[in-house]
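Much of the work behind modern protein science is quiet bookkeeping, done one molecule at a time. Below is the pair of lines this work produces for a single protein:

***
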Amino acid sequence: MSPTEGQPPVIGLLGGIASGKTTVAEMLEQLGARVVSADVVAHAVLDRSNTRDRVVARWGDEVLGDDGKIDRDELGRRVFSDTQEIAALESITHPDIVAALRQQIADATRSEDVMAIVVDAPLLLEAELDGLCDLLVLVDCPTDIRRARAAARGWDPHELDRREGHQQPLELKRQRAQAVVDGNAPIETTLQQVQQLWQKTLGL
């Protein structure tokens, strides 16, 4: 879709886990974009007392950290190996996450000081947020590199595959994308690609 005249363009980032989407989003933010991050929103949703209570009722006090907040790593270990558990967590958190993302996009669209909006959400297609985007950009990165990055985060060798098994396939994301940024290139090259994308998107 094309941006409404007078409104900032909305750029949606696609890609696999650990492909470099957050890095690209940060680069776009430095150029002047407003970033709407599903990860930031998810943190806020999990911190809500009603969400915490529902999560604890399902998975027990063991998912709470010493600060009384949900330990996302512990929750992930209990959830991501079981399809039914993932569905249970999504039923608790996704409606609020998607609603908050839509609201943040709408608020940014109405803001006079926003040049462009970047949506960094792993489930962008699944949540049908792509319908709010003017441009879909794939952050491309080989699977072996992404596995190595995930391992550096402390994930076991199969965690990435398990989590991506609950997302739209990469091939579909590749087909939907209208532009590509290399998430495995030297950082200077990726930045150059992002700058070119920025200039083209804003017509600079």
Remarks:
- Strands lie at 10-14, 34-37, 117-120, 135-140, 179-182.
- The chain has one domain: 10-202.
